[in-house]
Amino acid sequence: KNSTKNKKKADAGNASNDQLDTPTETIVPSSQWKSNCNRPGHCDGSTNSYNCNRSTQNSCLLSGHNTNDDQCGLLGTPDNGWLVLTLADVTEGIIMVKFHTWKTETQVGGDRMLEEDRALMGGEALPDNFEFDFAIDGKIVTWNKLEFIKQWHPVERMVQVFVLLDDVHFVSNGKNGKKNAVKDVELAMRLRGGGLLDLTHVYWA
User: Fold this and answer.
1) Which of 113, 119, 162, 175 is the most interior residue, by most CB within 10 Å?
2) Which of 134, 131, 136 is nearest to 148 (CA)?
3) Rounded to an integer, what distance in angstroms lies between the CA atom of residue 1 and that of residue 176?
4) pLDDT band with cut points at 50, 70 and 90 for residue 68
5) What is the band of 45 on the pLDDT scale with cuts at 50, 70, 90?
6) Nearest CA-CA partner of 99 in 151, 136, 166
């Protein structure tokens, strides 16, 4: 579906209802965001974890570790357009995402190769013309490189979390206008300018 809604530059802070309300652009969902996971698998730490799909360098059969050393995610570039997700049953007005920002692409012959340097976790891998757009129910907020880095919450080593929405009143006008309202929310994200992002998690409450 397409959403024709609003756009605004965010000076600081995560989005609130006050920030989500100006002129128009059509959000067209894209299927160009791609998984960068070479070895998808799952380990729940039990003897039934037959699908762990660990690498040949990993000797642990039941570690409960699901990244398979790949740090898998959905890879987005400015060429990939809008990634559009539906977040079901939002109640507290909280939306957060986790990105890996230290990855870059290089052209090798006719192929694009993904590289990563964890020394670049402070945003150094992002070019100066980087811009990140996100839209909550079609209302667009833009962060440039400096604002994007400013919004990074370092939860722990290699965990870069960004708060896109923290508004306790966001769902107050939900079903029947009740205090304990619940609503499904459309979240859209895209990159502009340059760079790439690796989306690994979306959290909401």
Assistant:
1) 162
2) 131
3) 25
4) very low
5) low
6) 151
| Cβ proximity of 17 and 95 under 8 Å | no
Q: Report the distance separating Cα 202 and Cα 154, nearest Å.
A: 16
Chain centroid, CA 27 distance in Å? 17
Q: What is the pLDDT of residue 61?
A: 55
Q: Both tokens of residue 17?
A: 């209802």
Q: Could you please report the per-residue DSSP string of 87-156?
A: EEEE-S-EEEEEEE-SEEEEEETTEEEEEE-GGGTTTTTS-TT-EEEEEETTEEEEEEHHHHHHTEEEEE
Q: Which residue type, as a one-letter code, is found at position 170?
A: F
pLDDT, tens digit, for every residue of 77-115?
Answer: 999 999 999 999 999 999 999 998 877 766 444 455 556
